[in-house]
Write a structure and sequence with these properties.
This protein is an alpha+beta fold. Helices cover 16% and strands 36% of the residues. The strands form two sheets. Strands 2, 4, 5, 6, 7, 8, 9 and 10 form an eight-stranded mixed sheet that branches. Strands 1-3 form a two-stranded antiparallel ribbon. Keywords: Isomerase.
Length: 194
């Protein structure tokens, strides 16, 4: 499931960990339930059984799973807002564009944001995506003149050595067998510009 870099994917690394730590012989099953783009940090969700993977995946399809992100952007967005767009992915170039409604193969995307902190020419945002489109947060913010710091693909002029200032901060799901709500959290990176 890795990309074309030839690097081990996070999935491969997690399977190797489970095989080693739990003394699992043979192939290890691990279902990818929630993924993030390579330059993004934060929470990723795997399932150790196919039944758990199916139950968790259904929560994302039905939009009952709740995701929280943080992004450090260039520019000066308003204190809060909801962004509604239609997105189209150019698979050949691996970029996404905001396009007019009705564009063939375009998909609707929605997110809400609030300012967490203003940092001079940067703004720290708390973001709640309502849909899960490829590059959604990156392109929706950039289309309004607020590119994510380090995201040259979508207009940032700041280089960060392969990472961008977008972080999957938390994920709330219902445990696939116990039925309890669980919240998975990842602390914010400390190396973002002040």
């Amino acid at each position: 499931m890795g990309d074309n870099t030839g690097d081990d994917s996070l999935l491969d690394q997690a399977k190797a960990y489970i095989k080693r730590e739990y003394n699992k012989p043979g192939n290890v099953f691990l279902g990818v339930v929630q993924r993030i783009d390579r330059p993004v940090s934060g929470v990723v969700l795997f399932a150790r059984t196919s039944k758990a993977a199916a139950r968790l995946s259904e929560q994302f399809r039905s939009r009952t799973a709740k995701k929280e992100y943080q992004a450090l952007v260039e520019g000066d967005p308003p204190n809060s807002g909801t962004l509604e767009d239609w997105l189209w992915k150019d698979s050949a170039r691996n970029v996404v564009q905001v396009v007019p409604a009705g564009t063939p193969e375009a998909k609707q995307a929605s997110l809400s944001f609030q300012i967490a902190e203003r940092r001079g020419r940067f703004t720290l945002l708390d973001i709640q995506p309502h849909t899960g489109r490829p590059h959604q947060i990156r392109v929706q913010l950039a289309s309004r003149g607020w590119p994510i710091v380090g995201d040259g693909k979508y207009g940032s002029t700041i280089k960060r050595g392969g990472t961008i200032c977008l972080h999957a901060k938390a994920l709330k799901v219902t445990h696939p067998t116990k039925g309890e709500e669980i919240k998975l959290e990842s602390p914010s990176p400390r190396d973002w510009p002040a």
